[in-house]
Amino acid sequence: MLSMKGKYGLKAICHLAGLPAGSMAQSSEIADANAISKKFLDTILGDLRHAGFVHARKGRGGGYCLTRPADDIMVGHVLRVLDGPLAPIHCASRTAYHRCSDCPDENACSVRLTMLEVREAIASVLDTKSVAEMRRMAEVEERDAAAALHAS
Fold first, then answer.
1. Can you tell me the distance from the alpha carbon of 146 to that of 91, in angstroms, rounded to the nearest whole number?
2. What is the value of pTM for the model shown?
3. How would you classify residue 61: left for phi > 0, otherwise alpha for psi between -120 and 50, otherwise beta?
């Protein structure tokens, strides 16, 4: 399940993806626009900065911006930084594999085999979806909702 840290991190990175080129946003602006606690957001932005997704500049005119184009940032990479492996159980993880102590033969374990499929399905979506695509999806939905409201 997606944690609140992962969810808010994606909201923050999408917010930054919507900024005009060369612009920066302060954490309070991002927090207010996305209904996120500023203190929690500051922690998340720190993690994203350490992972190389965002750049921070202090002082007047400072704030946060993406370090590279939103088309080059994959949702799965962001979530792994914030939430850890995508696999629902350790024995199905590629990055944090750990054999289960109660499983005599993991190659014949129906739970593990099913969770491997789940991990592959999750990764196939999240590792091919860029932050820019995520943002565009939301913009299309907003336009469609506004058009439907206006047509009523």
1. 45
2. 0.87
3. left
Residues 98-107, buried b or exposed e (16+ Cβ, 10 A)?
eeeeeeeeee
HSE-up of residue 36 (Cα within 13 Å, Cβ side): 26
**φ/ψ bin of 58: left (φ > 0), alpha (ψ from -120 to 50), beta (otherwise):** beta
| Two tokens, residue 123 | 């990764």
In whole angstroms, give the CA distance from residue 48 to residue 44. 6
Could you give the CA distance from residue 56 to residue 7 in angstroms, rounded to a whole number?
Answer: 20
65 vs 55: CA distance, rounded Å:
5
Alpha-helix runs per DSSP H in the chain: 4-17, 27-34, 38-50, 75-83, 110-126, 131-151
pLDDT level of residue 94 (50, 70, 90 thresholds):
confident
Is there a contact between 56 and 71 (Cβ–Cβ < 8 Å)?
Answer: no
The rounded radius of gyration (Å) of the Cα atoms in the chain is 19
- CA 37 to CA 129: how far, in whole Å? 26
